[in-house]
Structure formats: C-alpha cells, structure tokens
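Why does residue order matter? Because the sequence determines the fold. Keep that principle in mind as you read this record.
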Amino acid sequence: MKQFLLIFIGGGFGSMARYALGKWLNGNNPIPYGTMLANVLGCFIIGLVMGYILKSTSSHQNLALLIGTGFCGGFTTFSTFAFENQTFLKNGDFVSFFTYAFGSILLGFCAVFLGVFLVRFLN
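Structure:
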C-alpha cells in the first residue's frame, strides 16, 4: 500500500506541474513549448534519479516510485520512453531501440489520428 501512496503523491505533483507549465508556456504558440519543456525536464529528472539509483549500492525503491514512476509519470510519460530507449542503446540492442522508438512514435500518431477520426465520424 505504501508503494501506491508514493506513486499517487508523486503523480499528483507531476500532473499539477505539467498543467502549470503548459498554462504558462503553451498559450497561443504554434509549438506547445510547455509540453516540450515538460518532456525534456522529465527526461532529465528520470535520468538523474535512475542514474543515482543505478550508481548507488543501496536500494532506493521508494525514491524510484515517488519520483521516477510517480512524478515523472504524471509530469510526462516521455521520460520513461527516453530512459528505456537509452537502456536499449547502452546495451547495444539497436533492433529493439528502432522497433520501440519508431514503433511508439508511429503508433502514437496513428492512434491520435484514429481517435480524432472516430470522434468526428461518430459525432
């Protein structure tokens, strides 16, 4: 139960931070700078946290859940995506990297377009 509470708290703060950043920077810009910054910052934060955890000799599961899964998960899912791809590259698994990276991007765009199409078609 403690793990769920850590994720819940971190996710709440991450979601609020993303919302505030978007309200502050997105505005009427053609590029959603707030979202872009959230994704880049989320990648940086998860890199710091996971790098620290991987370097450390002791277990930091609570920190990983609070910040990695919770905050970064609420702030952005892109951070996890980037970390997983970094792991593929670090391990020399280029097939998994290309499959996952480009498959995620392509399927993500397709899912957005499909959702928009279905809403327009069914409405």
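The two ends are 42 Å apart (CA to CA).
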